Amino acid sequence: MTHVAVIDIGKTNAKLALVALETLSEVAVLTRPNRVLPGPPYPHFDVEGHWSFLLDALRAFQADHGVDAVSVTTHGASAVLLDAEGGLATPVLDYEFDGPDAMAGAYDALRPPFAETGSPRLPGGLNLGAQLHWLLESQNGLRARLAQVLSYPQYWGYRLTGVQASDVSSLGCHTDLWEPRAKRFSALVGRLGIEGKIAPARPSTDILGTVLPEVAARTGLKPQTPVYCGIHDSNASLLPHVIGRKAPFSVVSTGTWVIVMGVGAEPVPLDPGRDTLINVSGFGDPVPSARFMGGRAYGLLLGDNPATWTAEAEDRVLREAVMLLPSVIRESGPFQGRESAWIGGEPAPGSAERTVASGFYLALMTATCLSLIGHRGDVIVEGPFVRNAGYCRMLAAATGCPVVTSNSMTGTSQGAALLAGGEATDDPAEVHAPENTALADYARVWRDRAA
């Protein structure tokens, strides 16, 4: 096996990446925006647009390079509800839609405690159980139409193979539906009346089956091409490190969400009010985690064309203690409900100083998340924030730990490709040592002000 095509559906973009299994390098990548359709009946994902894009991309990859297997990774907090014919029983709800909040009281009476699920209570549809509750109670006839619930990665596997499944890493993503320590469905499944309707949870490394004849005909893939079960995207980022690195360490998966996951972390009580949770690894093991919407905050602060980070701007930000206190996104993260505030004057939009101070803010929010899960050891950064050297240097200073950046711009595709085999290699692009006193002093002031 040489090339694995990875379907990688993030909240911001959907992509198909072709990963060379021997080197875990991305040979080719095609992307499209993950556009949310406004409805009716409610905001939902454009799954048919994604499907058409994926089939065309698979055809191109097969023609140009050859595809030996297909794997899948997607964002969490999403599921697909199928009817008896295997079609959509209802559109796939955008988890940022606030509709489920209208039934929060009724849902809260059903959900199991954090001590059992490791799943904090989150707004909108970020708890998958809340989505399912709202859909079943608000969409006329849905309960009667519903035949099967698939976790989101496995929906794409189902479209490719016709086999229905779910996986434990997706079920363990703050859904309220899974008990990570007991490795079983929670009591909520029965309380929602969907017992026996959630597709069986399978290991992420399972082969669901081979591509359907109509998929092979449309894409040129060989009929015997295997499709792997798939994995939640943050756990895909974690997987290469779990395989190839000795604990303790933490992985910081960056994108729309910044998610920190501790392997071999110091046992500490998790605080659901600060957006800590228990994730589930690709091997089914509980992983203490914390998160905030770092990529979304970056976009709000800097827009599409931020100024370039300069040494002069960094010196000015440090010297004048220009800093942004939490929280840019109030609805989630370790400082929920807090209003962000600039100290030392707000830098002008489009200025290098704004770029620097915003990068420092994101690093210090990340360091806060690491402290909440008992982080120990190296910090490995995956995803687009690896390009931000100032972010990485501040993160090293704030944690007092080496920060290792990945050579890949995203760890999700490589992790999902590893489901098909291959070996994880430790090949850091850069290591940032925690040695800058001025950055450490800035971090201490920020922590005191943010407390």
If you had to describe this structure to a student in words, what would you say it looks like?
It is globular, with a radius of gyration of 21 Å. It has about 450 residues and is an alpha+beta fold. The relative contact order is 0.12. It has helices at about 45-65, 105-110, 115, 130-140, 140-145, 150-160, 170, 190, 215-220, 235-245, 295-300, 310-320, 350-370, 390-400, 410-415, 435-450; strands at about 5-10, 15-20, 25-35, 35, 45, 70-75, 80, 150, 165, 180, 185, 200, 205-210, 225-230, 230, 250-255, 260-265, 275-280, 285-290, 325, 340-345, 380, 405, 430. It is about 35% helix and about 25% strand. It has a seven-stranded mixed sheet, sandwiched between helices. Strands 3-2-1-6-15 form a five-stranded mixed sheet. Strands 4-5 form a two-stranded antiparallel ribbon.
Topology, number of strands: 24
Count of helix runs? 16
Main beta-sheet strand count, sense and barrel state: 7 strands, mixed
Low-confidence stretches: none
Q: What would you report as the Rg, rounded to the nearest angstrom? A: 21 Å
Tell me the span between the first and last alpha carbons: 52 Å
Per the principal axes of the C-alpha atoms, what is the gross shape? Answer: globular
Mean pLDDT value = 94
- Percent helix, as a range, is 25-40%
> What strand order characterises the main sheet?
18-19-17-16-22-23-24
How much strand content do the residues show? 15-25%
User: Which structural category do the helix and sheet elements fall into?
Assistant: alpha+beta
